[in-house]
Amino acid sequence: MDIKINEIKIMPPTEFTPDQLIEEKEINSPSMLALQELQETTGTALYETMEEIGMALSGKLREKYKLIDAEKLERRQQALLRLLKQIQEDNGATLRPLAEENSDPNLQNAYQIISLAMALTDSGLSKKKKRALQAQLDTLTAEEGWELAVFSLMELGEVDTATLASLKRFMQQAIDNDEMPLSQWFRRVADWPDRCERVRILLRAIAFELSICIEPSQQSRLAAALVRLRRLLLFLGLEKECQREELICQLPPNTLLTLLLDIICERWLSVIGCLTDLPL
To answer: Where do the Hypersensitivity response secretion-like HrpJ domain residues begin and end (predicted)?
Structure first.
């Protein structure tokens, strides 16, 4: 039999209601009847119950996050007070007044935080005065991002906006980049004035974050960055000895430390090229 395509009529799909589907399938088992009844009689109640559970859960989560935030804030402050006390004992850190032309809000907040933290380390404070200072410190440390400015002021005594921005960029790179060799990190800080002090600022800021961090993945990243910066600071400690050897051997300035880092990092091709250029 020949069938002509243009004679075929395509019928629109038939719409079925759930009741019709059940009738078509002739499902009359007790379990299916019970399910149908449950869908019809408790659907709205089930939805309302789920909605109430969701609202209750969200409320409990909000309370939980409030507790987490409060605990995190307290841990930050306690860590700050401990570190400030340690720095004062190590090198007698003092806080210089901010320059009048310095209007950077981050530095102004950091200055106030240090002033309040120093005041709170006084064991002779009355309870009323301590609560008042603590309330002010709570307000200033409620937001994140103040730590690096605080440690910069504590280490350098004074810092400008450009220096703070440079430290922020370097700190983020140290956390994010886990494959850069030590010699390359050194080249990035080679032109910094007070580079040992600045690396110590980054070390303290990252160590501070690690001491209050509770997320495992972030803990791993911070710990890895801390190790990299510790290694960098260790080799920067060889700088004076390298400068002395450069004078004795009449080598160009600022070449021996970089060469030493390349040797330790096993960058042999680069090292051979450097050796051929040195007047040995």
So the answer is: 46-192
DSSP letter, residue 2: -
Task: State the distance between the two ends of the chain, measured CA to CA, in whole angstroms.
Answer: 101
Which parts of the chain are beta strand (E)?
none
Q: In 3-state terms, what secondary structure has residue 236?
A: helix
Q: Rounded to the nearest 10 degrees, how much is the dihedral formed by the CA atoms of 260, 261, 263, 268? A: -130
Q: C-alpha distances in angstroms, 236 versus 61, 189, 239?
A: 47, 10, 5
Pair 149, 164: CB distance under 8 Å: yes
**In terms of Cα–Cα distance, which of 202, 186, 156, 198 is closest to 254?**
186
With contact defined as beta carbons under 8 Å apart, do 242 and 257 qualify?
A: yes
Chain-centre distance of CA 65, in angstroms? 18
| pLDDT of res. 64 | 45
CA-based torsion, 230, 234, 237, 238: positive or negative: negative
pLDDT single digits (tens) 122-138: 778 888 888 888 888 88
Comparing 244 with 4, the larger pLDDT belongs to: 244
Residues present in the chain in total: 280
Lowest-pLDDT range, 70-84, 193-207, 218-232?
A: 70-84
Residue extents of the structural domains in the chain: 64-92+102-237, 239-280
